[in-house]
Amino acid sequence: MVEHRRFGNLLPHVILLIGVAIVAFPVYLAVIASTHDNAVIANGQMPLYPGSHALETYWNTLVSGTGKTTRQPVGTMMLNSLIMALGIAGGKIAISIISAYAIVFFSFPFRMTAFWTIFITLMLPVEVRIFPTYKITSDLHLLDSYAGLILPLIASATATLLFRQFFMTVPKELVEASKIDGAGPIRFFWDTLLPLSVTNIAALFVILFIYGWNQYLWPLLITTRDDMQTIVIGIKKIIDVKDALTEWQVAMATAVLAMLPPVAVVVLMQRLFVKGLIETEK
Amino acid sequence: MENRALFAGKLLPCLLILPQLAVSLIFFYWPAAQALWQSFLVQDAFGLSTEFVWFENYVNLLQTPEYYQAIAITLIFSALVAFFSLALGLLLAVMANRNIRGIQIYRTFLIVPYAVAPAVASVLFIFMFQPGLGMIARALQRNGIDWNPVLNGTHAMILVVIVAVWNQISYNFLFFLAGLQAIPKSVIEAAAIDGARPMRRFWTIVFPLLSPTTFFLIIVNITYVFFNTLGIIDTATGGGPNGATETLVYKVFQDGKVGTDLGGSGAQSVILMVIVVALTAFQFRYVEKKVHY
């Protein structure tokens, strides 16, 4: 930077390395634990290098179960999580992009009322209205269904605001040009606006996928059947055995599997992730 | 808001906005209204009759010592998590803002915790802090500390704070880094020419210029602790021991699960909604104004 440094850039490297070590250690330990036998883990003598039980543990966890419990294999849970995460991300984007389109490009009665009705939902996170929402979902016979997992979580003021902000920057001339070419509102949306929004949609998708995959409270309440559980709540039941019989190697393999999709999305789509994170909070 | 009104037609926009309005009304406004309505009602033990009692539920709630305990715990928990995760996030961001090699690799590692669900993060740390089995728990016990989060309330609180801080570091790191990169280099160079050493430059120039980011992050972190840590608490401690880690949101969840006191649970939900509205209003006010000292 500004002045000459006697030790070069040693200090930043040391501090960042310590930071990375602290951040990565719990994850590393989970990966290592998932490759050892439960007996080795349970007596507290687990080494810091991988063991030889990885294949067996992951096979048991994902597909067959271990025989000691009657719970669902984690494969089913991952499928449920995937459907929920994709449903929430896709659903939120779909309903917010069309509502933002209506608000920005049209004039209709109660336009501002509609806008504020959506905007205020920012202030009502699912946690504060949880039991009445549960009751409504149950009255609509949506318990233990994908619709019940997804629908109450897809109304999002943030996504609507993001698209609204972006649509406001689209030049008027673009709309006028497509009108001259004979395009109606639907044609303009498909052929012009949607292609322009691709980066925004992708960035939002990354954030919402993680949001959906990591949901805890809502799936915990509305799923009663084991085969509808998501992996994030399934893992709690694996370690919830209040005695020494917790199958730690299975619990850790499940943790690794629960982290894998969202971590992969964040790491592989880092640029989109950072963009999405910073833009949704504006 | 500027109205661009570039397309004519009334039916199409109404149809376009309908799905989102419908979801908002059914799953946001209707339940919120119900919570509000319930908070004014008392139901007898068999659920046979209900009576409108005005603010009795609120008065009762404010007379229970457990509620004040939950408020105190929420405040302590938020303060600890916000302080440590912001301090660590800032430290790492300042280091990463130097022109050093390998910054992409550091960043990739540092953003990983954001992607880990709070409940799963909790499981990772339980594994390390489980007495008799966890690596860190055993190290503590070897050094004469009788570590036991299942029985000791302070230990349970330390455990959930560590998990929440770990979970939040990525977020704070990324926002601080973005904030730091937005500070013009010329300002810092000017101070250096005036003879200000790095520490002095940080506290008198960089830190004040970062204040909008810091304010924004304080609010975001408090909101995170209020609402997103439920998964951490439920997995790691279950609010225990003796309510030592029972936050306001966790209390709504616990009391509602038992389900005998709908009025009290409604009153708790309404108070939480008021808190969220206040935090959001505060956030908009300060973020819009771009606070500088």
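The domain at 50-289 of chain B is CATH 1.10.3720.10 (MetI-like fold).
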